[in-house]
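step: validate -> pass
step: tokenize input -> pass
step: predict -> running
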Amino acid sequence: MTEAQGQPQRRTQRERREATVGKLVDATITAISEVGYGKASVQEICRRAGVSHGGLFRHFETRLDLVVTVAEEVGRRQIAGFVARVHPFFTEASDFVEVLRAIREASRSPLNIVWFELLLAARTDDELRARLAPTIEAYSKDIYLTALRIPAIAAQPDEIRQVAVFTGLHMFDGETFVNAVYPRPDLDEKRLSFVAAFYASTLTGRTGG
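step: predict -> pass
step: emit ->
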């Protein structure tokens, strides 16, 4: 073995950049999840990432640029988690309750809290809202197209399918947000049964019509 073979290869500049950006993105996600968007300052993010302020601003011109990159990554991870949860229902007829349970579990991912924090911040921050708009639009489209791969969802009447999907998703989103401060496990199963009955009723009405 030569001396060169016995030593680890030095990372390229691109690899070092990607590693630093990855640290900053992960640190921002964790910070927002644990202390909230408002307290996820540059100082907090750099401390968690082990990166200097100068190191952060070599890769992102502003904190907002970092936040936009984080939103894109959170969206990608959320879609991947959603697919993983509902994938078993893509090719088989399933009870609505079990389908909804899988969607709920995807909604209860800690990443969803980060997504909520970003949306809440964007509500009163015009620049953030404008920068996040394409990411939010793409995320919503991907979630909807994934939901349509579930036969129990795709079977919904055309005229209500989209509103049914997002009504269910937003219900679970709201449930997740409220449960973070006021959990109601006594209502969990009842809510699943209630919503499943609604979905089933739309199919019954379609068949009966």
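step: describe -> The chain has a mean pLDDT of 90.
step: cleanup -> pass
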